[in-house]
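Researcher: Can you fold this with heme C in place?
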Amino acid sequence: MMKKYKLMALILMLVTVLNLAIAKPILADEINNGGKIFEIHCAGCHANGGNIIRRGKNLYLPALKKFQMDNIDAITNLVTNGKNNMSSFKDRLTETEINTVANYVLDQARKQWK
Ligand code: HEC
């Protein structure tokens, strides 16, 4: 009887450890993928985190903060629906792709696009 529980505990532990090992590469992969989406759909106006149309509305952290764009929800919403001279991407990108590219933008902003 006791043996069974030990085995279950061991399996649970293994699953947890494996999960931790796998979770990181997936996150890195998503951010990588975000970079590709960004290159294709965003870099035309936002190369290196800038903004060729409205310079002040760039993708650096101070600007994102100033316009309350320093969170995933706000960026996702903007990319999905567009605003002024930035078009909507809901017909070109899936929800997952938009979420991925939003994460990429925030990650890059925190690294000052370096
Ligand atoms: C045609 C040019 C263009 C493209 C392509 C474009 N944007 Fe923008 N982006 C803009 C403009 C213009 C604004 C300012 C919108 C406004 O008036 O608030 C903006 C604003 C933003 C902001 C808010 C910046 C701030 O400081 O408030 C984010 C975040 C952003 N874009 C992300 C993206 C992402 C991610 C993509 C690709 C999926 C993208 N943009 C594609 C032109 C573009």
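Model: Folded with heme C in place. The mean pLDDT is 91.
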